[in-house]
Amino acid sequence: MRPLDPRLLRRSRAARGFVLAGGALALLQAGATIGFAWALATLVTRFIDGAAPRSFGGILALLLVAASVRALSGWLWEWVGSAGAMRVKAELRDDLLAALERRPGGIRNLTTARAATLLGPGLDALDEYFGRYLPQLVLTVVATPVLIVAVWTADWVSGLIMVIVLPLIPVFMALVGMATEAVQRRQWQRLQSLSKGFLEVLGGLSTLLVFGRAERQVTRIRTVTDAYRSSTMKVLRVTFLSGFTLELAASLSVALVAVSIGLRLVAGDFTLAPGLFVLVLAPDVFLPLRNVGAAFHASTAGLEASRDALDLLDQAEADAAGGTGAPATAAATVAAQPHARGASEPDPAGLRIRDLRVLRDGSPVLEGFDVDAAPGEFVVVMGESGSGKSSLLAALLGFAEVEGEAALDGEPIGAATRSRIAWSGQSSQLLAGTIADNVRLGHADAPGALLDRALRLGGVDLPADRVLGPGGTGLSGGQAQRVATARAVHRLLATDGRLLLLDEPSSALDPDRERALGARLRELAREGRIVLATTHRAGLADAADRVIRLPEVARV
Ligand SMILES: Nc1ncnc2c1ncn2[C@@H]1O[C@H](COP(=O)(O)OP(=O)(O)OP(=O)(O)O)[C@@H](O)[C@H]1O
What we know:
Elements: H1 6-11, H2 13-49, H3 57-102, H4 112-124, H5 126-154, H6 156-165, H7 168-203, H8 205-210, H9 214-267, H10 272-320, H11 330-336, E1 351-360, E2 363-373, E3 378-382, H12 389-396, E4 401-408, E5 411-412, E6 421-424, E7 433-434, H13 435-439, H14 448-458, E8 467-468, H15 477-494, E9 499-503, H16 511-525, E10 530-535, H17 538-541, E11 546-549
Parallel strand pairs: 3-10, 3-11, 6-9, 9-10
Antiparallel strand pairs: 1-2, 1-4, 4-5, 7-8
Helix pairs in contact: 2-3, 2-5, 2-10, 3-5, 3-10, 4-7, 4-10, 5-6, 5-10, 6-9, 7-9, 7-10, 9-10, 14-15
The structure holds adenosine-5'-triphosphate.
């Protein structure tokens, strides 16, 4: 396991800042430690030599200043560590969320549970990494050589002993690290599978209850939790063992230096002042390296999580560059495509789609789709089940891979145009709370008049303050569908959007309500917006300005 992933420094400005600030603090701390050791050794020697107490003033002041600087730099380390962890976590979270936003279908292999674990407790583990481990690592790299030079200058024999025994500690650490890596990785995987299992059970709890299988999940969760507990104990065992090994190695090294100084002092080959200076300094030479070992285990979870996050970010970048053949967003490919059929200038306003090809998992599900919709038009796309209606909407939202030309108000469809589009999918996706809360979701500050309008246009004839249960329970399928439509309309009005996309908004409505909805959507479009709805029923299509029929699905 690498002590510091170079990608972290490359990607994160905060991490670079942390290492630079840490380097400066380490130098300050090394200087203060040397000053403290020198002042203490001089003070004791002068005292033993019977020097006049008046001559102690300057040395005492230096001792005090050095001790204060050491304490201050220690406190600054704490502060820089926690601020660094916070900033790096925020940067990685932002980058990951932005990558997910660019590819709402998800980064390959990133399940909801993995994303939740990584973005939550995973990256939180970086607190230990930045707060405890990295400061000691920087101290080891920057301060230890400075301290060894100081020791060597005072007594080259002690310096030589340190140079010989010091590398033993990293060798022990590397051996222990190899054992830890596998254990820690298993631990991280267990945490992920625990989250995944828990999310799955939670998501399907109502179904499990209905079929009387809920109790069985208790055993399943208990098994995964037990596995996690036992792997945690394994990590702790390795941690204690390695802590003991490192302490032993460091203590023996200091003892070796002390014995050599003691013997030479007794033999009269060496004077007291440099001997004391080296003895005071010796533990500090080994301390950062010892602390690196001790903090290593606490920080490995953070290391694993940051590596996971960096792998995902690399993968998202590779996907965006098209290097892996994974689906790209509409923004990525549509913008790169030359205009098909030699179309010259895009329409200044409205939706213009030419020869659009929508792909799912690399295979086309819709081909040769054209449409020109001017502001004020209500367009209905009809097609049987599986003909690609939802995929078309996904493409317009930038959620599916496309080829061809698609522009809204002259701008290629994709992440940039998404803010001008309001959308409601086939499933209502309502939340616990009032109907009003659901309709105003994300735009709670919009004027109340918009809510009333959205409710009317969506065909919601229920009180806005009616409280819904978790997942929007308490409404019929048709009622939930109308609330979802009202929410999309509300978003369109609140953001002054240009395009409203509705995926089968009338599939659960009776014919009268379906016709009424068609009329209201046309009324909404007339205000200068484009409304595009999909359906496989004729009722909605009657109200449309334009109906586009998708080709029949080939049957095997
Ligand atoms: N996320 C996806 N990944 C892979 N293939 C998909 C995905 N979503 C849809 N498809 C495939 O794309 C094709 C078109 O599906 P789509 O959902 O767009 O049809 P639809 O016309 O909306 O159908 P329905 O009226 O039943 O909702 C189908 O063959 C389906 O299997």
